[in-house]
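Researcher: Can you fold this with nicotinamide-adenine-dinucleotide in place?
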Amino acid sequence: MKYAPVQNFINGQFVDASTDQTLPVISPLDGTVLSAVPMSSAKDLDAAVRSAKIAFQKWAHTPIKERVQVLFRYRHLLEKDLQELAALVSEENGKTMGEAVAELEKCIELTEFATSLPQLVTGEVLEVSKGVECRTEHVPLGVVASIVPFNFPSMVPNWTIPNAIALGNCMIIKPSEKVPLSVGRLALLLKEAGLPDGVFNVVNGDSTIVNAICDHPGIAAVSFVGSTKVARIVYQRATHHYKRCLALGGAKNHLLVLPDAKADMTAQNVAASMSGCAGQRCMAASAMVAVGNVDHIIQKICDEAKKIVPGQNLGAVINKESKERIEHYITEAEAQGAKILVDGRHTTVAGKEQGTYVGPTVIDYVKPDMAVAKEEIFGPVISIMRTNTVDEAIAIENANPYGNAASVFTQNGGMARYVIDRASAGMIGVNVGVPVPREPFSFGGWNESKFGVGDITGKSSIEFWTKLKKSTVKWNPEAGINWMS
Ligand code: NAD
C-alpha cells in the first residue's frame, strides 16, 4: 500500500472508523494499491454530526467577512500545493496530470467565488411604514452534507465546501470510496487555513453512510452529485425526512453539428469533449447529431481522435468494470449495425498493463434507439446519429431523459438562437464542446440530470445553503428623547 489507510476527519482530527471493513483504493493508471478506505458506520456519522453541531454555535455567529478569511488562506494553500494535489487526483482517479492541474485550478476559482460572497449576501431593508422596517438576511442552515462522485475527486467537493462554509454552515462530506484521498488532503488544508474544528468533517464509506446522512435528524440539507440512479434514491430519502436536497445526476450530452460549422474548430471541440477525462465528465459530449452532410467534419473528428493516445494525452477509466462496460456498449452497437470509425477497445499501455484504458472511439450511423445513443456511457466514446433537419436533431436531444448540456456548432447566429431556445438542457454551448459556466454563473442541469430547485455553484448556491430571516422592526417614530432631562 503506497499511502497510510484513509481515516475519517471529525472535530479537526483524523480518527479511525468504528468498523474494520475496508475497500482497497486502486490507481486506474497502473493498478497500484494506493490505500484502504474504511466503510464507516452510522455511529461514525453521528459523531461527526455532534461535532459539527457544536461548531455551528460559534461559526454561524462569526461574521461572514471573518469566515471568508479562512478561504482566502485555503485558496493560497491550494495554489501552493497545486502540483502535489493534482498528482494525487491523477493517481487515484486516472486522469492525466494536465487534466488534474486544470481540476485544481477550478478549485481555486470556486474558492475565489466563495470569498466574494460577502458582496452577494447583503440582504435588504426598507422602511415600509412610518418607523417600521422590514429586513431580510441570509442565515445558515446548520449542519449540512455533501455526497460526491469519483470523477472529480477535488473539484466536485469544492463545488460545495467553500460556499457552504462561507455562508456559515458546518459540513460533513462523504467522498467517493473510489477516490477518498484528495478530500483527506483538503481537510488538512482547511485546518491549516485556520478553519475551526468541527466546521468541516469527512466520513468515508458507501451507501450505508449516504443513507445515514439522509436519515439523520441533525442534518438540515443534503447535496448530492453522482449518477441519476443514486440521485433519485438520495433525493427521495432526504426529502422524505423533510431535508432540503439538491441531487445532481448523470447526463447524455448532445452536440448538434450543422454543415456551416467551422470544420477544424468543431472537430477539435468534439474530440476534446468526448475524450477529456477519458469521457468521465457529466459535461462530456457523448452523442453527436450530424445535420445534413457533415462528412468532412466527421473525417476531421476521426483524425483528431487518432491523435489522442492512451497513457499519454488520455487517462484511464476508473476501474476494470467500467472498461468492460464501455467496451460492451461499443461491441453491442457494432452488432446492431453501427460503424466503428475509430476503435478504442482492447487498449493496453506498455508498462501499465494493470491500468484500465479505453482508447477514443467514434461510432457512426448510430440509431436513436440503440443503447449507445440513449444511455450514459461515461467513457471516451462518441455516437454519431444523422438527420436532415435541425428540428429532427433537437427532437433527438429532447427525447433523451437527461438534460445536463447540449451544444450546437454553426456560424449562423439565428440557428444558434433557435437551438438555445429549444434544447431541453440546463447548460447550452454554441461552438463550445464543454459548456461549463464559469463563476459567478451557476452550474446545473435539467430533467433527470438534477432533482431539486436551484443550482449547486455560483450565485444560485446562496439560496440552497441559506434560509431567509425576515424581521419587522418598529421604533417610536417620534423618538428624540432627551436622556439628560
Ligand atoms: P454514483 O452515483 O455511483 O456514486 C456517487 C456517490 O453515491 C458516491 O459517494 C457513492 O458512494 C454513493 N452511492 C453509490 N451507490 C449508492 C447507493 N446505492 N445508495 C446510496 N449511495 C450510493 O456515481 P459515480 O459513479 O461516483 O460518478 C459518476 C456519475 O456521476 C455519472 O453518472 C456522472 O454523470 C455523475 N456526475 C454528475 C455531475 C453533475 O453535475 N450532474 C457531476 C459529476 C458526476
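Model: Folded with nicotinamide-adenine-dinucleotide in place. The pocket of nicotinamide-adenine-dinucleotide is lined by residues 147-151, 156, 174, 176-177, 206-207, 210, 225-227, 230, 233, 248-251, 282, 376, 378, 404, 445, 449 (CB under 6 Å).
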